[in-house]
Amino acid sequence: MRIAILADIPWPTGAAGSVRVRRWAEELSRAGCEVTVIPVGNFGSRDAEDVDQEFYTATMARFTSKFGLFGSSGWSSLKRITEALHFARPDWVLCYGRRVSTMVACVARLPRGTRIAIDLVEHPSVTLWERGHGSAAGWDHWLGARFLLRNADAVFAITPNLAAACQSWTRAPITVITAMTKGVQVVASATTENPSKFGYFGGWHTKDSPNFIIGMAAHILMNDPRAIFETVGSIPPEILTTLKNSGLNSPRTIHHGTVSDDRLT
Predict the structure, then answer these.
(1) Neighbour tally for 132: CB within 10 Å
(2) pTM
(3) Residues of the chain above pLDDT 70, percent
(4) How far apart are CA 189 and CA 226, in angstroms?
(5) What is d(CA 54, CA 26) in angstroms, rounded to the nearest whole number?
(6) What pLDDT does residue 191 have?
């Protein structure tokens, strides 16, 4: 079976989505599928090589602008993506992302007979909630999610609650596929004699409720003198100030910054 993964993500590293898409590609390849990853988003290296060489990556077939089809050279970028899709001749395309300006534009150019699967990792309306009904970016995400889910032949959701939330948006079967990692690192519990580690990996967006995360971390550190709080990813200056004002600037708070996929596992 031939599968193309269309992914609106940083590639080959840079986000949780990068890790999830790579895991999809690796496991599908090991299952005997012929996999092509097409990272269509305007992120990351354009000549990145595959780490494991288990699947093919069409890194040159991506949008040159963060506005996708509506940005500079949008139509010529879409032409390259279309050529990569037709070269892959996929039986299925797995979509990670939901923007009209990127994902829907690409799906509309799929080879005839290709079936569509959606990998859903957050509520389809979350960007519209965050940016407001006057936001073009919010509608870009919301309309894209509606279109993709309505036309999907299969849907994968990262949690049962998310699966239930999108039930009314699609007639396709929904399967819960939780977070994908190469291994699980077991850390000591706060009830043991050893220090316990906990942390946050994310973009500190409004939709992720950064104040709740900060408050929770401060509460745990205050109640457990052995706990260590770690963050992965870039932290905006205003969030970093809030972290420090909340007491999260002690030696028990460690900020790793942006790290490679290998260090995330």
Answers:
(1) 9
(2) 0.74
(3) 88
(4) 10
(5) 7
(6) 39
